[in-house]
Amino acid sequence: MLWIASLWLLWASSILGAPVNKQRQKVLLISFDGFRWDYDRDVDTPNLDKMAKDGVKALYVTPPYLTITSPTHFTLLTGRYIENHGVIHNMWFNTTTTEKMPYYQTLFVNEWWDNGTLPIWITAQRQGLKAGSLHFPGTASSYQGQVAMVREWEPPLYNYKNETVWQENTDKVMGWFRDQDLDFISFYFGEPDGTGHRHGPDSPERREMVKQVDRTVGYIRQSAEQHGLSGHLNIIITADHGMSTVYRNGLVEEITLSKIPGFSFRDLSFHLVDYGPSGMLLPKPGMLEKVYNALKGAHPHLHVFKKEEMPERLHFAKNDRILPIILFADPGYVINGVLQFNKGEHGFDNEDMDMKPFFRAVGPAFHKNLEVGPFETVNIYPLMCHILGIQPEVNDGHLNATKHMLVTNSALVAVGFTVCKNQILFLGKYQHQHIVNVFSPYFLFCFR
Ligand SMILES: [Zn+2]
């Protein structure tokens, strides 16, 4: 019976000897801002369902804290927690001059983004690949003097909702892959975040916007096909955070800092509040304990931490840009300095299910029709580097968290081959008559 094992071995060698991927694989990373993990549950989403069938779906993914747009997108691009990559807020600020800049203007403040951590575009280009980005937060900045070789950012007062423009942008990105042979592109859509804020995550408007996202996912895959990319393009679709309904109008006792006894904005040198459920405060010299004691325990749904007390799991303390007092509210609540109006918000604890984004992936690197458990979004970066065949920078993710989504690659096959070969020889020596029975399922296990 040993000859059967030898034949299997020969067959295996011929399979394993062939290069697994003849053409270098490409990666398209897409973010639909604020697409919560369960948004496909109350809307028909045929294209997202088809993508899950043709590829991989995660139950949900966990973003880093603070769950707001620029910091969490920079985690997707770097694999680092926010305290480690330093883009700690959507807003650039200067505590000395008390200047602040809103989200859009902050996209152009180079030193806010370029503070030691390299996004994947730069790493890929330094290793001989070509990278591009369309509208992804961080695109407009340079990093150690380098930029993504093809890039485009949205103009001010941009309409993030126009479906026709979404399709035009899709064709543009596919054209960059085909005509300029880019290896990696990050591609950003500003919805359903805007609709979720304005109307709330349970609104009919949000459900309509999810249908628009779904149609666009269908368009993206069709466009990839038409551009001849399907054979070597991997598409990863995810988001930066979820969305949660805000309670007010007498439904709950709102958190309003200006009404808390013993607290005064006059005791602060600088603050960032009226920004959803999160806030940061810089007390004047000598006022830290007074401010802290006034706020701590002042409202049952307000969490107040000195920077050094922040729960380690949030990874939001060890950075000079983070202010000495950090505030966050429970789901349903926002922290009003004075007043806010959004019906939906994010920025809550990343353990809150409403903050979890969705995740889909399809392409030659991924298994088909596979649903996987949740993982943290820091792990998407090492996954992308692995598919692209580049050496990642230092990061907080682990390939182990996601590699079960991948079809066996050449490195894994080599290990599997060694193990299987030893097993074949072992079986061949000691259990001839059991070789076929035992070996067949094991072989399948090794090479699936
Ligand atoms: Zn966002």
From TrEMBL:
Domain of life: Eukaryota
Record key words, sorted: Signal
A Pfam short name: Phosphodiest
Gene3D superfamilies: 3.30.1360.180, Alkaline Phosphatase, subunit A (3.40.720.10)
N-terminal signal peptide: 1-17
Protein name, per record: Ectonucleotide pyrophosphatase/phosphodiesterase 7
Organism per entry: Sander lucioperca
